[in-house]
Amino acid sequence: MDALSQVFEDIHLKNTEYLYLQAQGKWAFELSHQTAMITYILLYGEAFFKFQNGEQLHLKAGDMAIIPSGMSHQAYSHQEQTLVNITQIDHLFKGLRDDEIILGDEDDKSEKSLIFSIRSNMDSIMGGPLIQALPTYIHLNNALNAREPEWLRIGLYFVADETKMNRPGRHKIMDHVVSIMLIECVRDYISTLTDQNNWLNALTHPELSPAFSAIHSQPERNWTVESLAETCFMSRSKFAHLFQNMVNETPLAYLQKHRLRLASQLLRLSQLSIQQIAHKVGYSSETAFSQAFKKHYLCSPSQYRNTYLN
Questions:
Q1: Residues with Cβ < 8 Å from 232, sequence gap 6 or more?
Q2: Along the 310 residues of the chain, how does pLDDT read in single tens digits?
Q3: Which of 52, 83, 164, 203 is the most exposed place for a label (fewest CB within 10 A)?
Q4: Half-sphere exposure of 76 (CA within 13 A, CB side)
Q5: Residue 31's beta-bridge partner residues?
Q6: What are the residue ranges of helices labelled H in the chain?
């Protein structure tokens, strides 16, 4: 499996939920920070978004926006943010909702907006490097236009088809469709990158990608700089230099961080013992693993697991 595919396998994009926001008149809504990827498709009307970091986005009819980090944001009917009650929508996500949720004044005859809102939960710790490498949002102008890429039209067709008919298995279908759309958006984003030090460029670099694939698919192996260089058919010195320049850390430092992220996931989601987890992520002893884990997460593996369970 290639490195990018393995990364998406690791983040466990699942439990997709959606709702329709029917907004009219003067309206506003807010979504707090989510450990989830958020997607908005503006079916008609327009909306003005303001993110926690100060960035802003204007969506028009047919536009789609993906917010990979789930960053807290607000949306408004008008660019000039007048006094209006802000509806908190966190609690409105309840599975796959086909009913329309009304925002604003139903009696107001001004332009209406219909916003298809999707929330897909993910493992934000495993997804950390991906989230940090992506922008606050990915904006696709006029995504519903026939001239847009075929993958996008097919993806949106599947989304529309699944929302029309309440058929068995649609929760899993939605998870897969949203995952495919995110992968394609990331692919398109990588093709526009000019920053050679972006982690995504390193992940897909023709010379380095075999090493990333090896690390992500077989973290339990006793990797050395030499053996990772061999997967790329490069000399040790050339590989180490290129990796350091593109990732801003050494190959073994990257390997250790990935192992510890994977260990945190196994502590949260599996019933494996700490010794089993240590071996599964490449540590020869439970003691060595526990010391490395505590140094990184400031608590022991057992404390970490108990905190999550409680």
A1: 207, 208, 210, 211, 239
A2: 788 888 888 888 888 999 999 998 889 999 999 999 999 999 889 999 999 999 999 999 888 899 999 999 999 998 776 667 899 999 999 988 888 899 987 766 678 899 999 999 999 999 999 999 999 999 988 776 656 666 666 666 667 666 666 677 777 878 888 888 888 888 888 888 888 788 999 999 999 999 999 999 999 999 999 999 999 999 999 999 999 999 999 999 999 999 999 999 999 999 999 999 999 999 999 999 999 999 999 999 999 999 988 7
A3: 83
A4: 14
A5: 73
A6: 3-11, 128-133, 150-164, 170-192, 199-203, 209-217, 225-231, 236-247, 251-269, 274-280, 286-297, 301-309
- Phi, psi (deg, nearest 5) at residue 160: -60, -40
Of 181, 8, 36, the C-alpha closest to 119 is 36
Measured over the CA atoms of residue 127, residue 133, residue 135 and residue 139, the dihedral's sign is negative
Tokens found for residue 95:
């599975």
Domain annotation for the chain: domains and CATH numbers = 3-192 (2.60.120.10), 205-309 (1.10.10.60)
DSSP 8-state secondary structure symbol assigned to residue 169: T
Sheet holding 56-60, edge to edge: 56-60, 46-51, 73-76, 28-31, 87-88
Q: What is the rounded end-to-end Cα distance, in angstroms, of the chain?
A: 35
CA distance 281 to 226: 19
Q: What does residue 237 show for φ and ψ, rounded to 5 degrees? A: -65, -40
Phi, psi of 298 (to 5 degrees): 60, 25
CB proximity list for 271: less than 8 A, separation 6 or greater: none
